[in-house]
């Protein structure tokens, strides 16, 4: 059993009951924690409390809304062992990619070879992360976000805020239906196939980018697939796109999907 000092604290967004992870960036971190076998505990934060939690910990927003206002979100990682080593109590990391880098370095300090980033791929991973985030944000979030598993106790508050930020008069105005939805799903499939699917099929032994051995790039895509699984009504359709590529990748990552 890991001692308290070696156990990191992971702040994730809580869904409605039963509590389960659903947001893409926290999923990237959860995969990375499990993948590196880092001992951790999860602190579940209700969606309306995320901004307050981040501000209370003194972590600035790492993203912006379209109107330029701060977007306070998760994940956050607290590493007590690193805090003791630094002597300042300040090892709090509030960005999923920076958390992955920290976990990579943490393994090196422990004398372990980290499986997250193969040698000399950090910059490539950072660019890949930005590309995948943009691809899913621009195509998938608009189709899936309306169906997030919100807590009924705070759902009205969350929906009102999200509708306001989207410039909509009502939450219901954000639902995409009918022919428009069909067209956007087709565009989403095409966007995934225009580059990302091709990269994943260059190594025929699959299902990961480099064949049978996963790395952080696979976890990045896996995090977004987890959001689609939890929020997109057409998940079963998506997992069959491009010859079932996304379903196979999702299933291959199940060994690192434990929520603790």
Explained architecture:
- This protein has 260 residues and is α+β, with helices and mostly antiparallel strands.
- The protein has 12 helices and 6 strands.
- It has helices at residues 24-35, 50-56, 80-86, 96-109, 122-139, 141-144, 155-165, 178-193, 196-200, 216-231, 235-239, 241-252, and strands at 8-14, 40-46, 63-64, 70-71, 76-78, 92-93.
- It starts with 7 loop residues before the first strand and ends in an 8-residue tail after the last helix.
Secondary-structure map with pairings?
Blueprint lengths: L7 E7 L9 H12 L4 E7 L3 H7 L6 E2 L5 E2 L4 E3 L1 H7 L5 E2 L2 H14 L12 H18 L1 H4 L10 H11 L12 H16 L2 H5 L15 H16 L3 H5 L1 H12 L8
Parallel strand pairs: 1-2
Antiparallel strand pairs: 1-5, 3-4, 5-6
Helix pairs in contact: 1-4, 1-10, 5-10
Portion in strands: 5-15%
How much helix is in the residues? 40-55%
Low-confidence stretches: none
The run of helices and strands is EHEHEEEHEHHHHHHHHH
What key phrases describe this protein's structure?
4-stranded mixed β-sheet; 12 helices; two-stranded antiparallel sheet; 6 strands; alpha+beta; 260 residues
């Amino acid at each position: 059993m890991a001692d308290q000092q070696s156990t990191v604290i992971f702040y994730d967004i809580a869904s409605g009951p039963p509590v389960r992870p659903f947001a893409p960036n926290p999923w990237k971190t959860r995969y990375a924690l499990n993948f590196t076998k880092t001992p951790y505990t999860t602190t579940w934060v209700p969606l309306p409390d995320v901004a307050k939690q981040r501000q209370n910990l003194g972590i600035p927003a790492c993203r912006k809304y379209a109107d330029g206002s701060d977007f306070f979100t998760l994940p956050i990682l607290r590493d007590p062992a690193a805090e003791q080593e630094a002597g300042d109590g300040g090892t709090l990391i509030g960005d999923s990619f920076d958390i992955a880098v920290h976990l990579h370095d943490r393994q090196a300090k422990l004398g372990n070879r980290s499986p997250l980033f193969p040698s000399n791929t950090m910059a490539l991973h950072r660019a890949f992360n930005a590309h995948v985030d943009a691809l899913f944000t621009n195509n998938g979030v608009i189709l899936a976000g309306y169906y997030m598993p919100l807590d009924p106790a705070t759902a009205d508050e969350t929906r009102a805020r999200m509708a306001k930020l989207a410039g909509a008069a009502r939450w219901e105005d954000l639902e995409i239906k009918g022919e428009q939805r069909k067209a956007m799903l087709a565009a989403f499939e095409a966007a995934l196939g225009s580059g990302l699917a091709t990269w994943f099929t260059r190594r025929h032994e699959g299902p990961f980018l480099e064949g049978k051995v996963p790395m952080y790039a696979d976890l990045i895509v896996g995090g977004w697939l987890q959001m689609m699984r939890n929020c997109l009504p057409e998940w079963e359709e998506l997992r069959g796109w491009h010859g079932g590529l996304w379903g196979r990748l999702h299933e291959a990552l199940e060994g690192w999907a434990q929520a603790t």
